[in-house]
Input
Amino acid sequence: MTPHHRLARSVGPPGRLVGVASWWHTLAHLALVGWLGLVFCPARSWAEADDPQPAAPETAAKAARTAAPVPRVESPPRVPPVRVAQQPTDAERLSQGESSLTDDALSDSAGPMAPEGRELGAEGVENLGETEDEQLSQGESSLTDDALTVGADVKMLPEWNNGLELFSTNREFRIHIGGRLQYDTTAFTAGDGPNRNFNDGGLDPRLAGGTNPRRGRLRVDGQMYENYEFLNEWEFVQESFLFTNQQNISDVADGPLPAPTEVWLGISKLPWIGNVRIGNQNTLTGLEHITSDRFTNFMERSYLADAFTMPFNNAYSPGILIFNNALENDRMWWGIGAYKNNYDIYGFSNTAAANSLQGRVTGLLIDEPELNRWMHVGFCTTYNQQANPILQKNSSGAVTQQGGLRYRVRGNLRNGPPGSFNSIYADTGILNGSYFTLMTAEYAANFGPLSMQAEWTCHVVPKVRTALSTNGTYGQQPVNTVIDNLFYQGAYCEVMYALTGEGRAYNKRLAILDRYVPRSNFYLTEGRRGWISSPGAWQIGARYDWVNLNDKGLNGGMLNGVTLGLNWILNPNVRAYFNYDFCYRDFVNMNNQNGSGGINGFGARMAMDF
Output
């Protein structure tokens, strides 16, 4: 009923107005005219929305006075059109990384309703004849995780995720193609003891600065069929033989050759055990050792890593690893591994002996990611069975020995590529031992911009025999001597502070330190009002480092070092290191010749990984 009808009924039927006094007739007539004005003025305002040229007021008033009081049916007012934003489909949200593989990721509640027995596509168009796999690959199915067909989604989309990455919308398939390059320059000064000739207790080889690539690797890693993982990485900067005495890398007839670092296949999401990896891989011998060199705080790892956890094999060995997380929010990590105890960089072992059993367990005592606060503690242990050393006679008929145990330490700054070019600061020479045990305690923490890290490692060999000739002693130790319960140890502690406020990231799945991400990436460019820039991230830090290879007359030397560092993280993939290192070398050979003294070094590195 229109307002016109309501007002007519309120004053009664028109017939009752006949015969009323003149003044009352006049008032009623004026009321009727006013009522017509009220009715037609709103109607005119809607018409004005359509007609930009409204009629004159006089014409409107005349029309109101002459209009008959008959019911008027008005058309509904026109509403200006509203642009409705197109909502992204589930498949688009998945491709943008805004969803994970859960039931909630495959929603069918939004969008237009489908005809009974039919499904609608991303734009509300009815899909005719689509297979289940096609619907799953588009993220439009309401099936539960248990009903998903693994491998149905094989279309790959590209994105930048700290490197080129291709992935399927349901993340069942992923492939990353990347690598790393580290280029170093170093300079040194040293006291009289380290600068002596090797036979007089000095360094071997002699100390000298260098400019060279430190690492150069290419890798392909990823995931397939949801729970299969793989990594294939090769190192292109190293020597063919680590024990060569050649002075020029071109003198090595068969090298340099690419060497495998991590080459393994894994299966994840297994009941109880969680994850299995088989192939050449990192061993479980300490936090610093397991953390990638892409994410270390200083140019080189500590002395104990070079002495005990990464000897001659780039820290990688062939074997099998089982690991998993436990407790609420994955605050506990455990792993057990069995490896071949090889002493070369090619993942090669030709003996049934030389086996290594290793275990590691860690926990987060503090886990407050919203405040960027965490505290990690861990413990790992290793039992290594050693291969028997190779005995042979040299050209003069003397018996020599190769293989077996050897503990040697290079400096915290290197003056050459991996291999025999680097000066060796401490060295026990070749030893023969049936087995040894290694234990490491770990600590790391982050509180806002402040991060700390420390480890202690001890190494026990129940019985060793030194080299059978001076050719195998390296550090000029006693020849053919038996020592029981040889005990070596080392430790380090370091503190880092981010001047730009960032904190250190932590990887719960592997219980290691992760990539350092600046709050703002470095740039310097010209804008419309002049030059504009962003500083990136800046860190300062210090490390104290110590290793002792002296015990029971078998003296490989003792090192005390301090390293000061300034790191400039330009963006998550590029960083520059600036390190000053001081090392005091304490070494006296078996002829009582003193090679002790201080070594100063300065180094810089430009590192990139992708």
Observations:
- The mean pLDDT is 77.
- Residues 135 and 141 are 6 Å apart (CA to CA).
